[in-house]
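quick one, 300 residues, struct below
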Amino acid sequence: MVGATEEVELNRLENQVDNGGGGGWEYLCLVRKLKVRRSDKVLKHGLSILNDSKKRSKLGGEEWTLYEQVAIAAMDCQRTDIAMDCVKVLQKKFPESLRVGRLEGMLVEAKGSYEDADNIYEGLLEDNPLDQVIHKRRIAMSKAQGNISEAITRLNKYLEIFMADHDAWRELAEIYVSLQMYKQAAFCYEELILCQPTVPLYHLAYADVLYTIGGLENLQNAKKYYASTIDLTGGKNTRALYGICLSSSAIGQLTKGCNKEEKEGTELQSLAATALEKDYKKRSSNKLPLLTATLKNLKL
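---
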């Protein structure tokens, strides 16, 4: 994630380069460092350096990095002709490079020849089965073709090797949720919480999934994770506060007549409802009557 200071510097450099003030190479380096995608700018300013022999010669070994950067930007901009020229230069310089092989596969993929691209990636994985970039490209390619079942299979195989990849677990969880495969999604969020227990987003998503699955035990656990989300965010997560109210109401319906269950949840319900009312008064007072009616329907 790009910080505010870094974004200001990036925009300043971009504006400077766009207006002919120089600093093109510094801008391209910063784009690469921050891993942002400003492909049209990279293509424009990268080509201006590559097409100028004097500027290109000053880069030394970084020249090849720029060819790679421009090739990827060209693919993003659907300029496969420029990307092909860059890849050919790199192939000539590094004929046995796996990194250049990845670019070749990406170029074939950009042209829409998914089967041929997959064959290239598969061959590269035989030489280096731990290449994360290629595994991810194959997953992305399956999703691009709408083959979600294949994407799930490839994500699961990927996570067998790279179990600590939080982004992959989250992507798999979101796919499962979109397919209403909530138990599988819950497992993914459990892994994320184990790896990063202080990230409130994972607690909230897990609570949502448990609430959706339903049943007394899942609702009770959902309530606990909504509560942990509130704790991790300093009481400022409106969705989690609603979650407390909704799960409490659902638990109340399932445990009606059980005084112990009713007493245990009363205080937290009341605190969540009060926090919601205070938040609405401060930020959206015109919607406070709607909130009051909603809470009343939930019998809070």
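DSSP finds 17 helices and no strands in the chain.
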